[in-house]
Amino acid sequence: MKRTAVLLFVVFILAACGGKKEVKQASPESVASAEAFALAETIREAFVKNDRVALQKNSTADGYRDITASKKGFDQIELAFTPRWVEISGSQLNLNVSWKSAWTNAGRKVEDRGMAVFVMEGKPLKVSKILRANPFIYPEQ
Description:
Layout (H helix, E strand, L loop, with lengths): L1 H16 L10 H21 L3 H6 L3 H7 L8 E14 L2 E14 L2 E14 L4 E7 L9
Antiparallel strand pairs: 1-2, 2-3, 3-4
């Protein structure tokens, strides 16, 4: 009896482990979120490098105005984004990002941080608006 129980147990374990592994497809929401994270990083890099062509390519006209709203010049900027939350509503995606910045101008360094919401639309996604604390505006201090 014990031998039959052990044999049955081993057969059960082999059958459970020996099956094909199922590869789950990524959900459309997951794919859109990954695209939004990549777009935010692309926008950040383009802003730091002052690459206006890349900024225009990855944003709508309104989004481009929000990104280039800072009229004050700067010598250097350090900008870091940490994605926090994604909300998808129809064709619009809102990416909540916490950010830190350090702006250097004429040897003076000004640091700032905040939380922004990047509104993204279209296929491929483009930044259409920045809500809350815009990370691309020179801090007033």
